[in-house]
Amino acid sequence: MLSAIVVDDETDLRTSLSEYLEIKGVSILATGQNGKDAFELYQHHKPDVVLLDFLMPQYDGLYAITRIRDFDPDAKIVMLTASVGDDTFKRLVDNDVSGIIYKPYDMDVLINNIERVIAGERIIPKYRPWKNSARLDIPQ
After folding, report:
1. What are 127's strand-pairing partners?
2. Is 6:18 a contact under the CB 8 Å cutoff?
3. Which H helix or E strand runs over 30?
4. Domain boundaries, the chain
5. What is the pLDDT along the chain (140 residues), one digit of tens a residue?
6. If one looks up domain 3-136 in CATH, what number appears?
7. In whole angstroms, what is the distance from residue 86 CA to residue 92 CA?
8. Which of 41, 43, 63, 80 has a CA between 20 and 30 Å from the CA of residue 71?
């Protein structure tokens, strides 16, 4: 069974995503609300994949990515984000994020992309500037 941790500062999103993934057969080992939580939970649980928001208070997703990558360069990290500007998109790609999925997302497409990341594929959609944030074409 596929294992994951879900990290997002929005409690309702974190809870609903975790519940849906559990229904779909993904074992949610833990949830957190910021990048520091993500790193600590990764160290403790070593899940197959980390599902991570970018913009979070105190410690953002980039904090988590850099710490997790230092700890485990092979970690699978999928960024779930509503806002990605030019600089942020470049930083995510440069820090070797395994996937970027733009909110709102279709849950079945999300599951498919998680499976693809676990299989070793990198899911980096096309970046298209749109009103100071990225519009990403999510591969299906």
Report:
1. 136
2. yes
3. strand 27-32
4. 3-136
5. 899 999 999 999 999 999 999 999 999 999 999 999 999 999 999 999 999 999 898 999 999 999 999 999 999 999 998 766 778 888 888 889 999 998 888 999 999 999 999 999 999 887 655 444 444 444 44
6. 3.40.50.2300
7. 10
8. 80
* Selection from 116, 124, 134, 133 nearest residue 97 by Cα: 124
* 27-67 pLDDT tens trace: 999 999 999 999 999 999 999 999 999 989 899 999 999 99
Hey, how many other C-beta atoms are within 10 angstroms of the C-beta on 69?
A: 15
Q: Which two tokens stand for residue 50?
A: 């980390």
